[in-house]
Amino acid sequence: MNVLLRPLSTSIGGKVVVAITGLLLVGFVLGHMAGNLLIFLGRDWINAYAHHLKSLGMLLWIIRGGLLAVFVVHLVTALRLTLANSAARPVAYVYEDTMQASWASRHMALTGLMLLVFIVYHLAHFTAGAVDTASAQFDGSTGKPAPVANKHYLDLTDALQTVNDVKTWVPDHGKPLRAIKHPGEEYRHDVYSMVVNGFRNPFASVAYLVAMAVLGLHLWHGASSMLQTLGLNSRPWGKTVSVVGPAIADRKSVLGEQRDERIEVADLGGRQERGGHLPRRRVCGSEARSLLADAKARPRRDLAAGRRGLVDHGGDLAER
To answer: Residue 121 burial by CB count (10 A; 0-12/13-18/19+): exposed, middle or buried?
Structure first.
């Protein structure tokens, strides 16, 4: 077992784990978003969707447990890699300058921890109903609110009634849902009213807007970075990966480690050390940019010099 788990303890193995779990979490976020968007189709759509999920019973709890496990593995592994990256250079550079790294790529740990706080709040808000209470229930056909006395979110009830031989779902203001022992197919949770009540609170609305902005920043770098870590940035997927996240991460990184473009170069003016290795020093900023430009131009200069040498050598032979 240790032999099988040993690769996961390395930095590369950890980044692969973060990439795979991140891919699963992105899939969940997209599915969760698609389900929540049903609220714009009307009250019955979102309530039917939520009722279907709850009808899964034990399967729903298995899915929730698996999702929680994936999230914990992603979080713990990402934090471990972040701490290892910081420990590799305990002394900060006197001057740092980035060339291609975005703000999102350099603050993945920060945005990840902010999302953790939001997830706790989100679960307390809508899953547990522990943050606020409902002051009204809303009729899907008229949109008019019916006042209720500080009703718990989980007690908002939708009842199936027959009107003119047509079965329809209407808000039930009198029966708390949790007090109904066997709701069956006649009662369901009024998720529509819960969401509308939730976002009538200005603090909650601002909190969700900020969280969505943070999530966007996290995915800005993370989505393309995880695909690059999994090797999907090569042809023909390269262009697709660049579209998934505008900031393509360093090929060695799946975390939000700062791609600071610090480079080690041989000090060509020094003497060779034992073993034939040239002394090394660290550079950054404008000096790093100059060295990179020089490295790109050097092959062209060498080729031109070689051609001149051949011409001169050919002339010497002709004279002889």
So the answer is: middle
What's the first-to-final CA gap in the chain, in angstroms? 75
What is the tens place of the pLDDT at every residue in 129-181? 999 999 999 876 666 788 888 899 999 999 988 877 788 888 888 888 888 87
Helix (H, G, I), strand (E, B) or coil at 214: helix
Q: Which of 238, 135, 224, 137 is closest to 189 using CA atoms?
A: 137
Among the listed residues 5, 21, 7, the one whose alpha carbon sits nearest the alpha carbon of residue 226: 21
Stated pTM of the model: 0.69
User: Any idea what DSSP says for residue 57?
Assistant: T
Q: How far apart are CA 223 and CA 242, in angstroms?
A: 10
Residues in contact with 282: Cβ distance below 8 Å, sequence separation at least 6, in sequence order: 93, 262, 263, 264
Residue 28 contacts residue 67 (beta carbons within 8 Å) = yes
Question: Which pLDDT tens digit goes with each residue over 49-71?
Answer: 999 999 998 999 999 999 999 99
Tell me: cis bond preceding 90? Omega within 30 of 0 counts: no
Q: How many CB atoms lie within 10 A of CB 289?
A: 14
d(CA 19, CA 105): 14
Distance CA 138, CA 193 (A): 6
Query: Hey, is 253 helix, strand or coil?
Result: coil
